[in-house]
């Protein structure tokens, strides 16, 4: 009986993965693929196009705030769904994915280290992409200046980190392991997924995020960094959040002439 039930179980797991991705990063990847196709076939060269990461959604400040908070909140629903699906009797997905607070100092330390290791090469990929004409000009934030602007950008950075690392790394690893995937196959799939939903920014960010995906998924699955066998996604969330905080908020501290030279507005 088990021989008959296994393929059915695998089909259900695969269907679940497609549903979760279809509600989250997979959906973003499809839109990004269409977007990059539109950009590459447009009359305007890719290097002269712009991508806005945090756009205003209303001219009325408090209505804009409500829209921003709703957008952040609903973007985290797939995270809740993934954690729910991975949980069960006697099994907490929060604990199994390493989202608990059992090692705050170590998680923070690794998160900062990963952010530093990815941040500088990531900026280099962006600058090189701009120079080669394969990366659009990125507008990190188009929000008007209000008392809530920085807190919203910080929340947006955290939302990105939690959504991408829980779905693209933690959840996807658990489910693909059930499907019999080995570590290398998972790392390749996770990294390509991460790169694909950044394609709207151009070819350079696609390559940079694939590299980031390789580093993050390798770190998450490496026994060297998980000595007790418990994988922890929190360092990845910390690292991703720090990278986005620098991109969304820290850019304003960079001199205007430097931002212009890097193609950042």
TrEMBL record:
E.C. designation(s): 3.4.-.-
Gene Ontology molecular function, alphabetical: hydrolase activity
Stretches assigned to the CAAX prenyl protease 2/Lysostaphin resistance protein A-like domain: 147-245
Residue spans crossing the bilayer: 12-34, 65-87, 108-128, 203-221, 233-254
One Pfam family here: Rce1-like
Protein name in UniProt: CPBP family intramembrane glutamic endopeptidase
Organism from which the protein derives: Promicromonospora alba
Keywords per UniProt: Hydrolase, Membrane, Transmembrane, Transmembrane helix
InterPro entries the record matches: Rce1/LyrA-like_dom
